[in-house]
Structures are given as structure tokens and as C-alpha cells.
Amino acid sequence: MARLFLFKSNAMAPIVKNLSNVLFIFIFIFFLPSSLSIILKYPAIINLGDSNSDTGNLISAGIENVNPPYGQTYFKLPSGRYCDGRLIVDFLLDAMEMPFLNPYLDSLGLPNFKKGCNFAAAGSTILPANPTSVSPFSFNLQISQFIRFKSRALELLAKTGKKYEKYLPPVDYYSKGLYMIDIGQNDIAGAFYSKTFDQVLASIPSILETFEAGLKRLYEEGGRNFWIHNTGPLGCLAQNIAKFGTDPTKLDEFGCVSAHNQAARLFNLQLHALSNKFQAQFPDTNVTYVDIFSIKSNLIANYSRFGFENPIMVCCGVGGAPLNYDSRILCGQTKVLDGTSVTTRACNDSSEYINWDGIHYTEAANQFVSNQILTGKYCDPPFSDQMPYLLNLKF
């Protein structure tokens, strides 16, 4: 079946909504999913990271809970994802004709790990967790969970023969599979709560040393194919703007906290260099560096061109414009604030918003990001010349 990509434009909204004068202008590209799956052909996906790609681990661990309206757009109920619907990883796997990844810690629902497993957990950091960390599942611990998973899966397959082969990956999947990694934003953004800007920058090399050691552990376990996502424009998240952007001189032209974005850029620059170094050190690997920062920055800077109406304001929050965000109450909660009972509810149309809850993106924004990733032009090495379609949007 051909797949259709439809992109909205604000200029079209009045026409589309007026049924007496309906005019649809489609910018669409058809391609066979099988063509894409040939280019991105992996038998299994191992995912590690934070809330950007957590499909339910932190919730399954009992550390946090999410309530409606989380999940309302796609799953129709909370799915363990910190979003109104699907994440970037969900869209990428769908494009590869792969099933959504089951979280490692979800013991119910008859999980099937044949095509891979998700170890990402919201709030996780590259550096080891401390007593005040949101998540104990640091990058190193997630790798240890993966090693345990692999060992136990191969042990069960050896003991039971074909009994579990429908549910667990065989030994060759670990070398042929893709290791997707999206982590680091909590290390950088969290550091600003206790460090100066210069101290945050000075901490980046040690963060990346820990990351590199983790990559080597995955390599020792057979990992050869890696997708490494850099971190996005952290200064454009409402949570950081509310806390660190009260002084207008600290904001850039888009209303984002300049220091956070500068730190993210420096982190990404060094992460890119590390990715290239790792590829050179281990030439039998395939390391792809994915520039999430550029994609998200372009989306925020040109939000109306891509059909969004609010680049920074939160969909599920309280307080109204400009941020509609209050750190004292999370999406879906009811609390008494300043003597008044307040409930955070979602906006009428989350597809008009980039930010879902002050920290995480909406499903619509995640779909935009994943579509841009799949053009191949934001990756190093790029694979745009291998794609069966050309994406060139102009409004």
C-alpha cells in the first residue's frame, strides 16, 4: 500500500474549514513501505534513552503515573508515553514496517520481544543517577538491563528450542539489529538547576566519556548498527522558559532560553565528534548521527509554515498565554493552587501545538520530526540519495 504524507499550511485552514468552498491542496509523496524497509532493514530494534522514546518503562516501574489526557490522540488512553499519542520512535518503526517496541519492564499484556525491546525510561540521564534523580535507569543501567535481557533470552531459546522463538530474538539479531539511542537532554537541562552556565559546559566532556563507555559495552555485546540522536533545543521547552527565562534579555528571538540552547549546541558538537571517532575506531560498525536539534529548531522557527499555531505554548497545561505552563501542576492533575482547585486539561486541537505538556512534544510534532529524519538529509552519513522519494516542501 502506498503511504501518503499530508502537510498542513495555516494559509489553507480557512478554505479547508469552509465546506462550501472546499479546496484541498496536497503536497504528497507516494512510496512503497517495502522500499523504505529495504533501506532501513533491521531484524530488531534495541532502543535506549529518556522520555523522548520511553514507551512505558518508568510507568511500569511504578515510579510515576500518567493520567488522561495522555494518549488521547492515538491510543485513546495513557500508553506509558509522555505524549498525547505516538513518539518519534513509534513513527520510525512504523516506517520500517516494525511493530511498536514493548518496554522492558512491562510484564503484562503478553509482550513480544522478537523484533526488539525498549529500555528507555523517562527522566534518565547518561551520568549515573543520584538520590534526587527522577529515574534510576541511567544509560549504563539500561545497557545492563539489555545485557541481562540478551543473556536470559538466549538461555531460554537454548533450553526450549522452538517454544519461545516467536517471542525472543535469535542470537544473530543482536549483531544485525539497530541500536537507537536518544539520551542526554536531562543531563544538560538538569545541570542548570545547580550549576552556572560555564559549569554546565565544563561537565559535557565527562558526560560524553560515560556515553562512549556505554557504546563500547554495546559493541562488546555484538552491537554494530547505531543511530545516535542529538539533543533538541532545550531552551525552547516551556519548563525551562518558565524557570530560567523570566529575564527577557536571556531569551532569543524565538522566546527560547539562549543559555540552554547554547549548551545543547556544544553538547551536540562534541557528540557528533564522538560518533565519528567511534566509527573510525570500530570500522565494522555503522554509526548514524541524527541531528534532532536542527529539525526541531527549524520547526519552532517556521512553525506556521508547517501548519502549527503555537511554537512554545503548552497544549496540556494551565495559566494561559504565553506559556500555559505551571511547574506546580502536571498535565492531567488536579491540585489546589493559591486556594483554588485547578485541573490541567488538553487544548482543543493538539495538532496545532508543538509542545504537549511543557517538556514533551505532541504527536503531530513528533510525526513532523520523524518525517524529516526519514528524508536522510539530517543524518551523518546522509542517506537522502537512497530514499525512494524526494521531500521538498515550499509554501
From TrEMBL:
Q: Which domain of life is it from?
A: Eukaryota
Alphabetical list of Gene3D superfamilies matching this protein: SGNH hydrolase
Protein name, entry field: GDSL esterase/lipase At1g54790-like
The keyword Hydrolase is assigned to this record? yes
Query: Which lineage?
Result: Eukaryota, Viridiplantae, Streptophyta, Embryophyta, Tracheophyta
Signal peptide residues on this chain, from the entry's feature table: none
For this chain, one GO molecular function annotation is: hydrolase activity, acting on ester bonds
Indicate the family of this protein. Belongs to the 'GDSL' lipolytic enzyme family.
| Organism from which the protein derives | Thlaspi arvense (Field penny-cress)
Keywords from UniProt, A to Z, are: Glycoprotein, Hydrolase, Signal
Q: Which InterPro entries match?
A: GDSL (IPR001087), SGNH_hydro_sf (IPR036514), SGNH_plant_lipase-like (IPR035669)
